[in-house]
Amino acid sequence: MKLDTIDRQLLALLQSDSKMNIKEIASKLNISKTPIYERIKKLEKSGVIDKYVAILDRKKIVTPMVVFCSVSLDSQKLKEIKDFSASILKVPEVMECYLMSGSNDFLLKVVVKNLNDYHLFSSVKLAALPNVAQIKSTFVLDEIKRATVLPIY
């Protein structure tokens, strides 16, 4: 879908505060409410706006441990990559998963309660997934920046 300037501005506003109402958005973009409403519906229907979520400050809820896991597979054949990808979608501790180039096949962002939970996760859940050859773990000491707003070009 081709986005015009108004669409980009609208998306930037919604990313910064998805609870902003139509009237506020219309005021900020200097456009009447009806075209704003229609644009939002069009962006939702086309899938550009996937969903609306509440972004939680994980430090205020619990003190979880964030771990980045580099996973290498025994085989990089398409079927094995698809099998691993399908399996990882079912693992709730995995917040993000990326298929990578280079020395590791996947990079996972994992959130667990503590080191013991990570040990159980990595040895029982992750290592048991199809075709896993190696897991390398890097533990986050401090979160410096976490952004949820995508730049829109």
What does this structure look like?
This protein is an alpha+beta fold and 153 residues long. It has 2 domains: 42 residues, Arc Repressor Mutant, subunit A; 82 residues, Lrp/AsnC effector binding domain/regulation of amino acid metabolism (RAM) domain (Alpha-Beta Plaits, 2-Layer Sandwich). The protein is 40% helix and 20% strand. The chain has 6 helices and 4 strands, in the order ααααβαββαβ. It has a 4-stranded antiparallel β-sheet with strand order 2-3-1-4. A hairpin with a 6-residue loop joins strand 2 and strand 3. The longest helix is centred in the first third of the chain and has 14 residues. The chain is elongated, with a radius of gyration of 20 Å. The mean pLDDT is 94.
